[in-house]
Amino acid sequence: MDSLKNAATEFILTPEYHDLLSIVKGFRNGLVYGAKIRFPHALVMTLLFRRTNFKDMATFVLKATRQHARNLAFFATIYKTLLILQRRFHGKQRPLDSFFAGLVGGYVVFGENNGVNQQIVLYLFSRIMIGLAKLPVKKNVMTEPTQTFPVFASVVWAMVMYLFYNERDVLQPSLQASMQYIYLDSNRWSNLRNFLWHNK
Q: Sorted alphabetically, which PANTHER family does this protein's record hold (predicted)?
C-alpha cells in the first residue's frame, strides 16, 4: 500500500504532468465549491418559499446543487485548458488570455438562461461593477476610495429608477414587485389602517 501511495505522490509531483493535473484539480475544486455554496442556499430558500412535499423539495435542492457544482467544475476545466493552450502557443501568458478563456468558458457553460446561471452571473456582475468603481483609485485617476463609491452608488440607483419608471418590464419580476411596493403602493391609502399597516 505504501508503494502505491509513493508512486501516486511521485506522479502528481512530476513537473511534466503539472498542467494536466492542474486542470483535473480545477474541475475537482469547482465541483466541491459549487456544492458547498449552493446546497445550503438552495436548502434555506426551499424551506422558506416552497410549499411542496419533502421528496419534491429534496429533488429541487439536489438538482440546484448538482447544476451549480457541475457548472463551476466544467468552467474551471475549459478555462484552465484554454489558458494552458494559449500559454504554450505564445510561449508565455498574456494579459488578455484570461479574458479569452473566460469568454469561451462563460458562453459554453453559463450561456443557458436558467435560475442557477442567472444567480451566478449576476453575482459576478455586481462584483465586477464594484471592482470597476475601485479602478480609478488604483490607476490614480481619483485619489480617495471614498470618491468612487458614491459615484458608483448614485449611477446604479439612477439607472434602476429610470428603468423601473420607463422600461420596467426589462427588470426581474422580484425587483419590479419590491419597487412597486416601496415606490408606487406608498402613493395610495384610504384610511388610517392601510396608511400604517396594510398597503391595500
A: PEROXISOMAL MEMBRANE PROTEIN 4 (PTHR15460)
